[in-house]
Amino acid sequence: MKKISLLAFLFLLNFTCPAQNVLPGIDVLIQHDFAQLSGKNVGLITNQTGVNKDLISTVDIFLNSEKINLVAVFTPEHGLRGSKSAGEPIDSERHKKIKVYSLYGETKKPTSEILKGIDALVYDIQDVGLRSYTYISTLGLAMEAAAENNKEFVILDRPNPFNGIKTEGAPLDTLFKSFVGYFPVPYIYGLTPGELARFINGEILKQKGKECNLKVIPMEGWNRQMSFEDTGLLWTPTSNHVPDSETPYYMAATGILGELNVVSIGVGYTLPFRTIAAEWIDPDLLAARMNALNLRGVKFRPITYKPYYGKWKDTVLNGVQIYITDKDAAELLTIQFYFMEVHNELYPGKKLFSLADSSRIKMFDLVMGTDKIREAFTKNYKVNDIKGLLSEGLDKYKKNIRKYLIYK
What we know:
single chain; 15 helices; globular; 31% helix; alpha/beta; 3-stranded antiparallel β-sheet; 14% strand; 408 residues
């Protein structure tokens, strides 16, 4: 079947969006008439977030381009459409006559056999800016595969939803390297996918003696001060529990605590990552005590709810709903630790780490990127005991990444 031209394809969709301040990498590639990929056999690493400014799928754009030959698609955790639950293995499939290879199933890294006949691997995925979100682990493994098999690697860049400035958490201790923490970067790492790829190439693959042939198609109009809301772009849910561009802030505030699986953080209810609750908590008392801390950029209100699915389905839970009122000022990672401090004062007989299974404590450490913070905190359940550990190595990281930055 003859391919229609890209312009005709876009015209037929008759889709209009509000004017955007920022063009993501896919739109810049289109503007340049696919020059960087012209005539190449392409493998595309993407999912439902790989769309242009008008929400048209990068898969469809590539399929309808006469300039490139899309020969394979690769998908990360949650699958091509983002419909799979966290941790659920993904099978390979076919989509519009294109083979779709899972990078979250039997293998998490493209094999040499799969890469035969591919000239360039193209990565187009919207990330959430958090180290434990596995899309960036997929990015790193795909870059390793490209380097080992002498394939070009092209990033279609996208915004970091926080901005390009906010960083929190000590860089990962490599002894705790896992698929939920693959790189020695802070928990909130302050880079776009393209900048992170440059960091991976220069700091990790170079040390292994084989950098990949990396090219980044930068965004137009983005600067480091911009949050996602500033871009004018429309958010595509990156996974089932990340429905909007504000959710990553709440993921940073409660997600590490959530790994213990002893209190609800709103997953299973309509407020994923925006609550902390349990059956035994007095919500009014907890809210009053949390607000009395006068934490910068955050407020709490008492809440009672029943999750619709998950561990606490149909169970009445009490706690607080979190409101981040100043995204720049709020120290997000500490919010969950302040909760644990207050909770320990109110309910000393229910120490959260003692309630957790050993497997969940291990996941807490892997997501945290170290066991030092847990060990120091659980001695007295005091945030002041870990503040230095939470920022250890952060200044060095900020200096080191300067040479990899693309945007001012």
